[in-house]
Amino acid sequence: MEKPTVFYVFDALCGWCYGFGHVIQKFEENYRGQVQTEVLSGGMVTGSRIGPISNMADYIRQTAPRLTEITGVKFGEAYFSEIIDKGTYISNSEPPAIAFSILKEQAADKPVTLAHSLQKLQFVEGHDFNEV
User: Fold this and answer.
1) Whole-angstrom distance, CA of residue 5 vs CA of residue 35
2) Exposed (0-12), middle (13-18) or buried (19+): which is 85, by Cβ within 10 Å?
3) What is the rounded CA–CA span in Å between residue 16 and residue 10?
4) Using one digit for the tens of pLDDT, what is the confidence trace for 59-85?
5) Across-strand partners of 37?
6) How many Cα atoms sit within 13 Å of 90 on the Cβ side?
7) Can you tell me the distance from the alpha carbon of 3 to that of 46, in angstroms, rounded to the nearest whole number?
8) Domain membership of residue 33 as a residue range
9) 7-39 confidence digits (pLDDT tens)
């Protein structure tokens, strides 16, 4: 019998997706073997939306505490000091989407873990996805 497929669409730059990451990880753990999980990287920041993080910095600073309150995820100091406060980071969903696609080929059995790990690179460690 064919397993049902659950599609999880995320974007590595989306704070709310980061906040939801532990929920989808728990879902995958609880239903492993019963459902197939397909993870797709969306394109939240593409085309005319690509630009310096400074354009969204005030919104992010206002939203982050609420996101933490609702979801329990923490943002690392490096995210604020290296990404938000500097303001020069260019938000673009394409580089992390490409990285996710490549990594997913290498570890096809762990797409949810890979997605959440990518998000942690930015939101906890302050990694710039535009740097190789």
Assistant:
1) 6
2) middle
3) 9
4) 999 999 999 999 999 999 999 999 999
5) 6
6) 10
7) 33
8) 5-123
9) 999 999 999 999 999 999 999 999 999 999 999
